[in-house]
Amino acid sequence: MIDITTRKVEVSIDGSTVLVDPSSTVLEAALEHGVFIPHLCHDPDLKPTGVCRLCMVEVDGRLLTACNTPVVAGALIRTDTDAVKETRLGAVELLLVNHHRGTVDCAEGETCELAKIARLLEVDETRLKRLRRSDQTLDVDTSNPFFHFDPNICVLCGICVRTCDEIVGVGAIDFVKRGIYTTIGSAPDAQWIDSDCVSCGECVVRCPTGSLAPTHHEVPEREVISTCTYCGCGCGIHLGVRDDRIVSVRGVRENPANEGRLCVKGRFGFEFVNSPDRLTTPLIRRQGKLEEATWDEALDLVAERFSANRGEAFASIASAKLTNEENYLIQKFTRAVMGTNNVDHCARLCHSPSVAGLVQSFGSGAMTSSTKDIGDARCILAVGTNTTAAHPIVALQVMRSLRQGGKLIVINPREIELAHYADLFIQNRPGSDVALLMGMMRVIVDEGLHDLEFIEARCEDYEVFRESLAQYDEALVEEKTGVPFAQIARAARMYAENSPASILYAMGITQHTHGTDNVLATSNLALLTGNVGRASSGVNPLRGQSNVQGACDMGGLPNVYPGYQRVDDPKVQAKFERAWGVELHSTPGLTHLEILGGVTAGPIKAIYLVGENPALSEADASHAREALEKVDFLVVQDIFLTESTEHADVVLPAASFAEKDGTFTNTERRVQRVRKAIEPVGDSREDGWITSAIAKRMGVEGFDHESAEEVMNEIASLTPQYGGITHDRIEDIGLQWPCPDPSHPGTRYLHAERFPRPNGRGRFFPLQYRPPAEEPDAEFPLVLTTERSLYHYHTATMTRRVPGLEKLRSEELVEIHPRDAEALSIASGDRVRVTSRRGEVTARALVTEVSPPGTVSMTFHFHEAPTNVLTNAAYDPVAKIPETKVCAVRVEPAS
Amino acid sequence: MASTDTDLAPILDTFERRPETLISLLQAVQGRLGYLPPEVLGTVARHARVPRSRVYGVASFYSQFRFNPVGRHRVAVCRGTACHVRGARLILEELERSLGIKEGQTTEDMEYSLETVACIGCCGLSPCISVGDEVSAKLTAKKVRKLFKNAQRSAHK
Question: Are residues B28 and B80 in the same domain?
Answer without folding.
Answer: no
